[in-house]
Amino acid sequence: MIQTSLRHLLSRRVLQRIPFIAAGSSSRRGFSHPSENSSSFADPRPDDERDVNHQGSEAATTISVDRSGLINPIQHCYEPSSDSELVKHLKSIIKFRGGPISVAEYMAEVLTNPKSGFYINRDVFGAEGDFITSPEVSQMFGEMVGVWAMCLWEQMGQPEEVNLIELGPGRGTLMADLLRGASKFEAFTKSLRIHLVECSPTLQKLQSEALKCLDEGNTTGSSTKSAISSLIEAPITWHSAFDQVPSGVPTIVIAHEFYDALPVHQFQRASRGWCEKMVDVTEDSTFRFVLSPQPTPATLLYLMRRLKWAGAEEFTQLEHIEVCPQGMELTEAISKRVGSDGGGALIIDYGQNGIVSDSLQAIRRHKFVSVLDDPGSADLSAYVDFAMVRCSAEEASENVSVHGPITQSEFLGSLGINFRAEALLQSCTEQQAEALRAGYWRLVGDGEAPFWDGPQELAPIGMGTRYLAMAIVNKNQGPPIPFQ
Ligand SMILES: C[S@@+](CC[C@H](N)C(=O)[O-])C[C@H]1O[C@@H](n2cnc3c(N)ncnc32)[C@H](O)[C@@H]1O
């Protein structure tokens, strides 16, 4: 009976649009319309204009902050009396700079501050954490990414040595499922040198456990940690950034939900032109958004760069634009690496194939909260601008071709997730089959779960079309599956 219902489910067209989790509450980086989350501006008092000395990552300059451009304020609540380490740190940056910081700097501190960033000291995934990702939903996700990687390796001519790099591996679940799934293909697994790019020591430890690592130690003379995964006897090395991974060997890069965690600058159209949205502290010590009174260096540099790739019709109607410079730089680095060493990269994330307007969102314990509320206690993420990824990759190297984006449904469906689900069902208990069916539906489905009989507001929502897949590959290899 379960098989019958799975067949029924599988026979549904999977190329549909599906949000990920509970419509009214739960999980992963829920997908409310950006405008629903765009309203975290605070205190738009028009009288509040002052000079600030802005010394962010951009060149220091003096700007005055005009709060009159702020719109649609909402209250956010955290108790100044119980300031966390991170809140104190953010306030001290703003105080000692003498003015607000960019949204990108705020996001970087909140997520990856080495002492108290959101990702640094705890496991944020799963029902007990703040959100759930596809690899945590079903083993089939990592297995299908493994099929993709093996096919690319075939197309590369089965090189004896390959750097398999995962950016932001979370709990290590995707890589563990990929390696388990590939373990019968010895020529492939023997070629693998695995590199994990991860900023969080806590998550590095979980990754080490998931990959059943032995002989963990520090590589002489560096802070790089290395080990052997007993899953396939492959060497694993951890790095804190992509450019630390050694080059000169064909490369396969996997970036699942990594780009959405990279800091974005937010820009807003005002009567005086495009200005930058920034984070400030009020006199009563709460955070709020303010708008720069004139273009900041980031506006001139990053916004102009992004607009260069857009048609006038794409942005003339927009009042807000997000730009992710780290996403541009990372894509350039990946593209150059793949262009010179061979191989390819797979990027799967939620986003859109064009300029992103205003998508920054915060999720704590499976619920949306204000972006400014108790920073460090909630995940921040932003939609990925896949058109930006394409333009950055193509501009960085003539030797790569860019494919997609296609929906996660199309990607997983073309790689054969249906057949994998059917095969797993052959050796399942009734309970396992139910979990498998639900996981399958979440990965490729669209809309609310057809089998859900719980409260409507808690109905799980599929991720099949919210999530998009894009590949950047060396031109010599031809288009990768399933992007042909
Ligand atoms: C949203 S989680 C995705 C985890 C995993 N890929 C998954 O799908 O379950 C983002 C991951 O990237 C890591 N991360 C975020 N920003 C990073 C950065 N700037 N450098 C290195 N790792 C980062 C986080 O610690 C976490 O492992």
From the alpha carbons, calculate the radius of gyration and give it in angstroms: 23 Å
The share of residues in extended strands comes to: 15-25%
The helix tally amounts to 16
The dominant shape is globular
* Mean pLDDT across all amino acids: 83
How many extended strands?
20
The secondary structure category is alpha+beta
Bound molecules: S-adenosylmethionine
Q: Uncertain runs with pLDDT below 50, 5 residues or more?
A: 1-80
Helix content: 25-40%
Termini separation comes to: 36 Å
Largest sheet: 10 strands, mixed
Biased composition (Basic and acidic residues): 44-53
Biased composition (Polar residues): 25-41
EC number: 2.1.1.320
Pfam families: Methyltransf_28
